[in-house]
Specification:
- By secondary structure, the chain is mostly helical.
- The chain folds into two domains: 55 residues; 115 residues, Histone Acetyltransferase, Chain A (Up-down Bundle), CATH 1.20.920.
- Helix content is 75%, strand content 0%.
- It has seven helices and no strands.
- The radius of gyration is 54 Å and the shape is elongated.
- The N and C termini lie far apart (163 Å).
Length: 234
């Protein structure tokens, strides 16, 4: 009798609730867990997004610092460049003022020396390919040296020897009293060389011609400026 009642109860339970009690419990548990899992996923997504934004902010800050550093470096370079230019300008100004002060204290010979000294230096530094890239016009030829230099008759032919070494001594001592005196000494070197070496194919003759050409080129602007300055005004 008890067995029959138990069977009837199970049948009635199945009819009223097709799902088993165990299944109901599982489904209830899943429903309770599902929101938690969903919430956990949402939290992880938000956290990941926050990390990404933080990294982007850091990179942006670093880029900004780099740009600011470049601007500071550029500004510094420009300032240094301006300061160097100003320093150079001040040095040049001081040099010009020093030259003006020196000129104010110049004697007439000092002023004259500044005119002819550059011309002399250019002539002294010349070298001539025709005579083995030397400058024969520096050599002293006089009564004491003619024989030793292989030109024993030089002083018989040349009445007044002249050379760049003689001129150098006068330049260094500022002995010239006029520009004309300096120009005549140089011109005498050329005339003596052409007189003693009349052959136009002679190396010394050719060198003397080249010396004279350079001398005239250097002296011409100076002579013209002085002549213009001394010309009477209408």
């Amino acid at each position: 009798m008890f067995t029959i009642l138990l069977i009837i109860g199970v049948v009635v339970l199945k009819i009223l609730n097709p799902k088993s009690a165990a299944q109901q419990i599982i489904e209830k548990s899943q429903m309770q867990l599902s929101p938690k899992i969903s919430i956990g996923t949402k939290d992880l997504t938000e956290e990941s997004g926050g990390v990404k934004r933080s990294r982007e902010d850091t990179e942006r800050d670093q880029q900004l610092e780099i740009e600011q550093a470049k601007k500071r470096e550029k500004t510094l370079r420009e300032r240094i460049k301006r300061e160097e230019a100003e320093h150079k300008r001040l040095i040049e100004k001081e040099r010009e003022e020093e030259e003006r002060r020196e000129r104010a204290l110049d004697t007439p010979r000092d002023a004259l020396h500044r005119l002819y000294e550059p011309i002399f230096t250019a002539l002294w530094d010349m070298e001539f390919a025709e005579v083995g890239n030397t400058n024969p016009f520096r050599v002293v030829l006089d009564g004491k040296t003619c024989a030793d230099m292989g030109v024993p008759d030089y002083c018989d032919v040349i009445e007044k020897p002249m050379n760049l070494t003689y001129i150098q001594k006068k330049v260094n001592k500022k002995s010239y009293e006029s520009l004309q005196e300096f120009l005549e000494d140089v011109d005498l070197i050329v005339r003596n060389a052409l007189t003693y070496n009349p052959d136009t194919d002679s190396p010394v003759h050719i060198a003397a011609k080249n010396l004279h050409k350079t001398f005239r080129k250097l002296a011409k602007p100076l002579v013209q400026s002085l002549t213009k300055g001394l010309a009477p005004k209408n």
